[in-house]
Amino acid sequence: MTLDDYRKVDGMSNQYWGWGLEDDEFAMRLKDAGLKVQRPQNLTTDRSNTFKHLHDKSRKRDYAKIGNQRKVLSSNY
Predict the structure, then answer these.
(1) How far apart are the C-alpha atoms of 64 and 17, rounded to whole Å?
(2) Can you tell me the distance from the alpha carbon of 16 to that of 40, in angstroms, rounded to the nearest whole number?
(3) Which of 39, 51, 70, 77 makes the best surface tag, with the fewest CB within 10 Å?
(4) Within a 13 Å sphere around the CA of 67, how many CA atoms are in the beta-carbon half?
(5) Is the CB of residue 66 less than 8 Å from the CB of residue 72?
(6) Within its chain, how far is the Cα of 70 from the centroid?
(7) Band of the pLDDT at 3, cuts 50, 70, 90?
(8) DSSP 3-state assignment of 26?
């Protein structure tokens, strides 16, 4: 993905708070724009070890919800 591609789909949404769905919505906008995301061939990481997500009740932002995020996602797509 290039910076021009990122700009073409208006970047990441600010409508999501806490954990989840922002990447799903971003992927749908990329698909709608006809863009394909590809992983470079020389990476040593994959889906199982790219990001380590640590969730703890003390991290309020991980559990914060503003509105119905699934409804926002489904109303946009």
Answers:
(1) 6
(2) 28
(3) 51
(4) 11
(5) no
(6) 13
(7) very high
(8) helix
pLDDT in tens, 14-52: 777 766 678 888 888 898 999 988 878 888 887 777 776
End-to-end CA distance of the chain: 22
- Helix crossing, 69-76 with 22-32: angle to 10°? 0
Domain residue limits at 47: 3-76
Number of domains observed in the structure of the chain: 1
Q: At a CB cut-off of 8 Å and minimum separation 6, what does 67 contact?
A: none
- pTM over 0.90? The answer is no
Tell me the C-alpha to C-alpha distance, in Å, between residue 5 and each of 27, 35, 59, 72: 12, 7, 32, 23
